[in-house]
Each structure stands twice: as C-alpha cells, then as structure tokens.
Amino acid sequence: MSTPNPRADAVTQLLMDWSAGDQEALNQLMPLVYRELRRLAHQHLNRENPGRTLQTTDLVHEAYLRLVDQKRTRWQNRAHFYGVAAQLMRRILVDRARHRRRAKRGGGVAMVSLDETAVVVPQPKVDMIAFDEALTRLARLDQRKARIVELRYFGGLSVAESAELLKISAVTVMRDWKTAKAWLHRELSDES
Amino acid sequence: MNPERWHKMDELFHSALELKPGERGVFLANACPGDLELRREVDSMLRHHDLANSFIESPVYEDIAETILADDHSDDLLGQTLGQYELLSVVGKGGMGVVYLAFDVELRRKVALKFLHDDLLGDSQRVQRFKQEARAASALNHPNILTIHQVGAVQGRQFIATEFVEGETLREIMKRRRLSIAEAVGMAMQITPALAAAHAADIIHRDIKPENVMVRTDGYIKVLDFGIAKLLEPASTDSNLSTLINTAEGTIIGTVQYMSPEQARGLEVDGRTDVWSVGVMLYEMITGEPPFSGDTKSDTVVAILEREPKPLTKLTAAAPAALEFIISKALQKEVTQRYQSANDLLADLRQFQEQPKAELNEPALATGARRLSQSGTRQPGRQTLAGVPAGSTSSAEYIVSEIQQHKRGAAIVLLIIAVAVIGLVVWLSKLGARNQVAPYPSTMGMNKLTASGKVKSAAISPDGKYIAYVLAEGNAGSFWLRQVGTTSDIQIAPPGDFGLLTFSPDGSYLYYKNFFNDLYQIPSIGGARKLVLKQVDSPVTFSPDGRQFAFVRDQIAGDDNALMIANADGTGERKLVTRKGPEGLVHDGPAWSPDGRIIVCAEGGTDVDGDFMKLTAFPTDGGREESILTDRSLGIGRLVWLRDGSGLVMLANERSSQSSQLKFISYPGGTVRNITNDLNGYDDVSISADASSLVSIQRMAFSTVLVTDSGDIGRMRVVTSAGGDYGNLAWAADDKLLYDSNAGGSWDIWSVGTKGSDRKQLTLNAGSNAESSASADGRYIVFVSNRTGTTNLWRMNLDGGDTRQLTNGGNDEFPSLSPDSQWIVFVRKSSYSGKASLWRVSINGGEAIQLTDNAVGRPAVSPDGKLIACSYQNEPGREWRVAIMPFSGGKPIKLLEIPAHPFWDAPGVKWSPDGRAITYHLKRDGIDNIWSQPISGGNPMQLTHFESDDVISFAWSRAGELAISHGTETGDIVLLKNFR
What we know:
The complex is a heterodimer of chains A (192) and B (980). Chain A is an all-alpha fold. Chain A contains eight helices and no strands. Chain A has helices at 8-19, 23-45, 56-67, 78-107, 128-141, 143-154, 159-166, 170-188. Chain A is globular, with a radius of gyration of 19 Å. Chain B is α+β, with helices and mostly antiparallel strands and 980 residues long. In chain B, strand 28 (647-654) and strand 29 (661-666) form a beta hairpin. The model of chain B is unreliable at 68-73, 232-254 and 356-444 (pLDDT under 50). Chains A and B meet through helix 1, helix 2, helix 3, helix 4 and helix 6 of A and helix 1, helix 3, helix 4, strand 2 and strand 13 of B.
C-alpha cells in the first residue's frame, strides 16, 4: 500500500471519467500527470549513477502508482494511461525544447572558452522541435505509425506493450516502426 | 504523398528489406516500372533505414537526460557584468554552484567567480557562518591555498571571487593515470602544509578531495574551498547518520568517499578530519582506487565506519611498508589513534621522502613479517600500534628518535618496525575478516539497511537470509539481492518493470507483477524471467506447499472483482469468491494461512454510517466466510501471516494520519496491536518463516518552513523543519506562522514564530485539521476539520481555544478571509457531481452564499478585499485559467494566462502583498518555484530559485515577507527483529 496521496482521489476519478469518454477529464488529468512525471524525472536524473539507464516505462509506472488510489480503482485501462503519458511526455519535452531555444536566441553572447577548463554542455541527441514537427507530418500520412513512435519513444513502451495497447500484432508494430524510423530519420537529415 | 502511394512505398520498402542489399536494385526496378519517383523514395528510405541505427531506439528520456541535468540556466549570466566582474564563461558546475571565469574590470585581472546555489542560502545563520569562514580563509596567506579575493553578494546571490588558476584538478589527473609513489607523496606534502596553516587559524577544510586540489600547469598545488563545506552540513547540531545521508541524497553533498568517520556520524570535527581525507587521497593516488567505496553513498559510509581498506601492498606491490604505516595511521577510525595534526603527518611524509626507501623496505623484513603473520601468530594489532605513542609526536619522529638513542641497537629498531608492520598486517586482515559478519544487535529493534531513499519494494526470503529489493535508482526498477547481515548487494536482473515482490515458499523464485498486471517469475539468484499469468491485479500469496497462489483480479465480468487461485505455474486458475460494486477486495494482496485452510483479504464496504474496511477469511474449500475485523478508522493494505498461524502483520493507516504503519492482528480474535507507530510511513511487508525478521520499506517525508529575511527572496531562512509532511501555510501575525503538519501522527494545525520559537500545536485529537488562515484583526483562526465525520469550516481563537463549526456543507474547504475579517470565501464541492464552486460565509457562521457556478480552485481574497482570484474554468472542457472576479462573485473581470489547475496547483494562487500581481507556484523540469504575474499584463517573473523538492504551500505577510513550506520523500529498507 503506498502512502496515500492527497491527490489520488481526484486522479482516480478523472481517470475513470476519462475512460468513460469524458474529454474534459483528460484536460484536467494532463497537468496532474505532467507534474508528477516531472517530479519523478528530476528525481531519477539526480540519482547517484547518472550513467545507468533510465526506464521511461518505470517512470510512468511510478507516476501511476503515486497518482492513483489503487484501492478504489477498478479499471483495466492502464494501457490508456501509457497512451496519455506518452503524449504528455512528448508535449513536455517539446515545450522544454522551445523554451531552451528561446533562451538561447535571447543571448547572443560570445563564449570565451578556455581549453583546459571548458565544460562541455551535452546537446540533446535529437532535436525535439524538429522531431515533433516531423512526427506530426508522419501522423498525417499514417496515424498508426506515428502513434507507435509516440508510445515507444516518448512512452518507453516495448514492441509487445505497444502491440497490446494498439490491439495489433507485434510483427505489425515492428514493421510500422521500421518504416517510421527510416522516414523520420530522413526527415531530420539535411537531405529532405 | 497520398495514402495509396504511401502504402505502396511502405510495401516495397519492407519487401526490399527482406532481400539482400545487392538484390534490391533489380527488385525495385521491376517493382516500380516507370515510376522513378517512387523508386527514389523507397531507395532513400532504405538508405535511411541503414543510417538510422540507434536513432530513437532508446526512449526519449535517455536521449535528453543529460541535457536536462545541464539545464541549470547558468548560461543566462554569461556576458553580464555583475559588480566589477564580467562573466566570460562557465568553467565548472558542481554541487556547490556554478564557477565562472570572470574578468575583474577594476583590477584588470582574471578571476574565478563561484556563485553558491540558492539552496545553500536558505539559512541566514549558515550563510553568516560561511561568510565568516570564507573571510577567515581569505586571510590565510599560504602559497598552497587558493587566494580568495572577495566574498560578497550581487543581486542577492552570494559569490566568492578567487585567483584564477590555469591547470587541472587532481581528480582530472587521477582519472588519466595512476600516480607514482613519489608523485603522490609530493602532492600530499604540498597539501598538508596548507592544511596546517589553516588549522593554525582554526579553519577546518572539511571537504578535502581531489576535486578541491588544483594542480597548476607548473605542478604547484592550490587547495580550494576552505571552510565552504561547512555550509553543506545539516543545520541541526543533533544530526545523526541518517539525517546526514538524507541531506546528502537530497541535493547537496556530492561525494562521501573522503569523509572521516566522525564526519559521517555527524559529530564535531577538527583538523584531524582533514588528516583523514589526505590519507584517503594518498591511498587513492597510489593504488588507483579509493580505500572506502560502495555502490551507494550509504554503502560507502558503512565502509568508512566499519571496514578496513585493502592493504596497500595488495594493490601496489611496490608500496613500502613505511608508507602503508603512514596511510593507515592517517586512516585510523578512532581520532585519538590518528595523526594528531597535519604537521605530524607532514613530518612522517618528510621522513619517508628523505629516508632511503631500502632502509624501511628491507626485503628480509617484509618477508619475515609475512611469514610470521601466515604462521598464525595472533599478534594483537591494536596493542602494537598503541605501542607507538599516539600523542602529538609523529610515529616516524618517534622511530627516528629511537634510532638516534640506540645508535648501536639497530636490531631493536628493526624489531620495533617489524612489530609495527606485523601488527598492521594482522590487524588489517583481522578487521577485514570481521567485517564479513553482521553488525546487527541481537536485541529487538529496527535497522535501516539502506539510506539511498530509493527503494521501491523489498522482500525477505523465507529462510531469512536474503532480501530482494527493487531500487528506483537511475533506472526505475533495478532488481537487487542482499545477503542479510552484509552490505554487499548483487544486481540480479537488469532494469525492468519490477513491482511488489513475493518469494516462493522455498525461496527459489521471486514473483512480481508488472505495470500491465502480468505476473512474472524470476529465479532469486537471477536469470530469465518467465510470464506466469496475466491479469493479476494484486501481489500473490502462496499456499504453504508452494503449489498454488492466490491473488485479486478485477473486472472479470462488469464491476466484479474476485479472489482467484491458480497453480504455481499459472495454470488451472479458478475463482474462489466474487465481490460486486464499487467496494471490493483491495489490491494490496491476500494472505494464505500457514495451515492452508483460509485466505485472508481486506475489502471495503459502505453502510449507512459511511465507509469501512474489513478483513475477511475465505476458506479455500469454499466454506463460509468469516469476518476477522471491521474498522471504520483503518485503511488496510498488504497482509502477511506469521508462519505459526497466530496472526497477521498488516500495513494499515489511520484515516487521520494518512501514513501506513505496521500492525499485528491476532487470529483468531482480531485484536490489533501496533508494531510501528512513528511519524514515517511504511510500504510493503514480508516476514521470514521463523518470524524472527520482518522487512518493510520506511518512507520518510522531510519538510521545511522557510521565510524571507527582510523581504529578500534570495535570503530565505529555515523557520522549522522536521520529518513528516507539511501542508498549508499562513501568516497569523507579522512574526507568526500557521502551518499544517502530520508530524504529530495526524494532520493538525500548528503555530510557530518566524524565528522558529514558540512552536505550538493548536488542534489535537479531533480528526484531521488543516487549511488554517488567521483573520486580519487577530481574533480568529479559520480552518477545515473533519472531526464530525464530514469536512467543514471551523473557527477557533488564536490560542486554539473556543472552537466553533461555521459551515455544514460536508465538502467545504480552502477558506480565504476578507481583510475586514468579516467574511470567509471558500470552496464547496457538490457531493453528487464533485464540482467545486465558490461560496462565502460570515466569520460567525450562518447561511453560506454561493458566489459562482463555475468550477473553481482554491480562492484568494485580494489585500483590499475587493477581488477574488482563483483557478477557474469558463465552461466544462475549457482550459483552466486564473480568474480575477469581484468579491461579490459572478463573472470574472479578467482571466490570466497562468498555468492553473485546482488539483495540480495545490498551493493555489496568492495575491502579491501590494495586490498588483498574482503569485503562483510552477513546476519546471521537476522543480517547484514561485512566480509572479502582474495583473496589468507583462511577463511573469520567477521569484524563487529552488533547485530541488516541492513547494507545498506559500503565503505572503502584509509586510511583504514570503513564507514557503518545502518538502521531499524517501524510501528505505528496514529490518525488524523480535517485532512480535
């Protein structure tokens, strides 16, 4: 039994409402999950061994455990939760990237760097904003493939989990994934 | 591209992928005759398929984690001129803050400018102490100490300006290569005089480590950051190990490897602490590995306190015995056995450097020593060491003086050295062996086995020898096994989606369910996991013979949930009992009795008097259910039987406290007794078969109330801090705060002076009490209480007396008082729809008046009493905004673009003291801070600069001071012995 979270009641109700088709509940749910995911992400990133792999799935899992009053929950739609979490993750990260880009643009400062001591600030491996835009374009071409990318990349779901969630076979997920990956890679390269 | 073409491209792409690269060209030429464009499209897809490799193969978090970590806005200051310093570049970032290379415009020189983290500045006393230390350090004039030019503050940020040294830290050098013995000793001989000079001025470094030793390009050493470590120490003087570690885990202290035992214990330290740290560095420089280390900080601390390092010669064959002696003397855990000053250490190092090594490292001597120790001679090591005076004379001086006194008696000298070396070897090996044994007391008690704060789940094996646990560290679910009584942990499975763990009765397997409620089995010693069964909605419990397990499953048909039984391999599942309706069997898991006859599970229920929980025994033969316990005040969670069948241990929380405790319930009889009853929460419970050991997860919350000093947000200081959660915060007077705390076991209202004095509990033994605010006339405190069973507004005098109920809506909360002390604006939730709307009621109670029909969050009445601000939804489905509306209610006169949400934004919005802005809390990158949005428009401004934890609540005084409650939560394994 997790230590009850004062917000658990509210989230549980929202999740139930939303699973019953209430879109308003989703609107209310987003910021709640958002807050929790960020709190967890920060915690995870602050661990002693930053070299270890961070599992997005587990992050989401933990958020779910904290947010949802499990005693009250009768629902099976954990898959839906993953779905929304993946969407949220995407939104959060793209927002962050936009924010960072704005911050950078404002500066315009010449960096004076000393070779001996310069600190290398890691750059993201993937340009979030460009990636988001490409993924949106992909969704217009092929909704399902874009969804799979969202689930796998932003939600951290495995092929099997994505398959279960989308009620399609793992083979189909893998096939879609290959196409989406190659297509997105091309979109993000200079050549397209 | 139209859908048809896209589909065609996709088909061709996959068909081509199945072919060998060489065959693809021909295939495509045939497949798309005349359609060059399609062919090009597929070609480029194939090319990118090959190029993509690891692209987006790992989840996004792994791609951006580092970026987020680095995103500390330190670049924002570049190019700015602060005071006389022009910030040129960031040269380093650490736990303490950011270091910039800056140019001192006045004195025309380069300086290093270190800004301290705002977190470190919360306690003004601490800042004061730091300044004193830094100033004292700046008075130190020693060639091996980095010169401090200035200690000051600019724009509310504390900084230190020091000379800028071109070179690298000792850490960077050590990362590259192992140092020769001569080099290492040479380094230590530059560090120790710096320490000796500082100690003479009563300045203790406290954080000597390779990162704080700068090696100039010419080899000259500068020791950095004198006295700064003091700033990092816990504020309280009664700090024990756990608070120290928690502080460390929390945010600040980076490495514990160089910490002395007395430091790790949180005791007072003196110069001998720095001597220890030099010993650690010497050892590491020579052997290439630190003498004390562990997988986690807590393990390292245990090593520091309990273990002896590997003998130097084991790692570096060439290490002379005399050097081993010096290092081991610097690393004596007992301070009185250690070198008593940096000068003593320096003297021995000097002797060592000057003495021809052969003389001290006589081959005959070394082998003789080894032979003796191997032949099993039990030389009492400590005695031998004690034979060397532990006073202020250094041991080498002693030995040398012996040599001088007994010029003829070389044999005696050799004997002394031999005895010392033998003693050391025996003693080291003895201590090494001793530490394989458990340090547990045999008496009853609770031992905390981890201190990382990151344990999610833990289970003790039936034989009581192992604890399997899931660590949310770096990865959210790594799976570890620890042999009870040791501190060595083995990772038995790569990171995965591990949930609550259950050992099979023979201990050979662990069962857990993942997020999708799939039950997996994994060998306890590690190995491949196996899917056992799907749709398992609770942890499992095994029949005594281990052949079957029971669990709870939801929604098997409509609203039902059921207690299920299945064979250990997942086959043959069957329903034992079904429940209907919104209540039902809890998900924390049933417990199968040791005689195999019944399965006990907690379930919820409702009757005319409200909700209750009960424990029910379900006979496995389908016989009549038996109620063991019905309780209206307890929430019951996970259950485990004692193997003798005399009762169960359960996790349960009193409704008023919200934190789970371990309780024992007898069977039959159903008498409940507390096992734990403290301020922490407990998760997860398992018991060894002989019932001697119980393992649980202890959750600790830490909260702090901070206030600004003279309105300066850059200078927040701690008013009070404690375990437990804090809730709402409010000002009762210019020098008095009200806050909710569950530190007393239930939610109650407390008051405290802003200087931390006069702490007083205002409500007691009356349900949960929270959300207090004081009337401006100083007469009343209005608060929310559920003491009658439903949630309503109440009032009491400032001293806690004369309590009176003001509303009876049953779901009334979030009171905000008008400045004339006449009205209370609050939120009333409909018990039907759950919709929250705004109401107001007189300070004397009576009929409440509805102010708005829209959905709202926590309200705040403006300082002039004319307006109300709250999060607000124009109509269902629309986004939440912050609305400003007339005090009389009705439609908003303004909607502000503030990310608002009644649930998400738990502390609510607050008016700035001048009534011109709305202040609110906002989480960015996982950290809560407070922002301000001018009502007239313009950009929001960040007011606080916290770098960790959550803002639980905040409040402005009329005088413009800001109070914030701030908190975080940890989870660690505890082992309970003799808990019955």
